[in-house]
Amino acid sequence: MQTLFNYTTISTRLEKTTRTLFVTLNRPDWNNAFRLEMLFELESLLAWCTTRVEINSIFIDSSTPHFSTGLEFETLPKTSASQLDKVNMKLQKIIFAMMQLPQTVIVDLGEGSQTLASEFSLGADIRIASKKTKVAFNHCSYGLVPAAGGMSMLSTLISPAFARSWVLSGKAIEASSLMESGYLSLTYEAKNRTEKIQELLTSVSAQAPVQRIQAKLGLFETLRSQFESGIVMDRKIAKASMVSEDWRTKKPEQKDLNFMPAKSMSYAVKLSLVKNDDTKNLEH
Questions:
Q1: What domains are defined for the chain?
Q2: CB–CB of 105/60 below 8 Å?
Q3: H or E element in which residue 86 lies
Q4: What is the C-alpha separation between 112 and 108, in angstroms, rounded?
Q5: What DSSP string runs through 2-60?
Q6: Which candidate among 24, 93, 189, 249 keeps its CA 20 to 30 Å from the CA of 130?
Q7: pLDDT digits (tens, 9 = 90+) for 156-210
Q8: 122 CB neighbour count, 10 Å cutoff
Q9: Would the pTM count as exceeding 0.90?
């Protein structure tokens, strides 16, 4: 395999037999959580891929058995609303780009993912995972909403009934439900992972490149309008939900919740509007 690029948070290599670009999230000390640096590197790599039509597939996994926690839970209480907004918008842009790449994008979720990492996988054409996997869209448990696609895109790609249950319960979803919903295309056991992946990559490489690319474009275009309108809605919902700043109040190990009561929401929104008006007056 040929090694490509010198990124800090991801590693890449090119396998010539199936013309596959392997991308591995490589922040094991942080459970491969997403931060702006990783998102910028992923965005840069995907931009490079847009003109590399000779590459058949992009295979994304991580350096740990568990794909990624998504959020950096340890730093979350110190993260500002503007920082979270930047992460959400960047991730949303990456997911949208993955859907339009000429390559077939495969994401291996391994033994599971949470929050932003689960949303990231929505950009894949094919999602696979270990039979032990547990995937969670558990943003609300940390005082956030799945604003990068976990509301609109998830409800478009699978049955809204599954999406509503997964997001509103925040529970870890096992492989059987993920397969039933269509979210996952394939599961594997540790002993046959390499074989299953090779079979999948070989199958992709055996397709006529022009027709494969055009088919992917056609599949995307049938849903483009729903994705675009959904992105706008997601951003509005995210902005409204951040008024409470609930993500600052809880660490992963804490059991006692100190979230804003729902009845306080209208007052918080009004206070936010007043603060915004004051800021505008100062600017003028």
A1: 2-226 (3.90.226.10)
A2: yes
A3: helix 81-100
A4: 9
A5: EEE---SSEEEEEETTTTEEEEEE--GGGTT---HHHHHHHHHHHHHHTT-TT--EEEE
A6: 93
A7: 999 999 999 999 999 999 999 999 999 999 999 999 999 999 999 999 999 999 9
A8: 26
A9: no
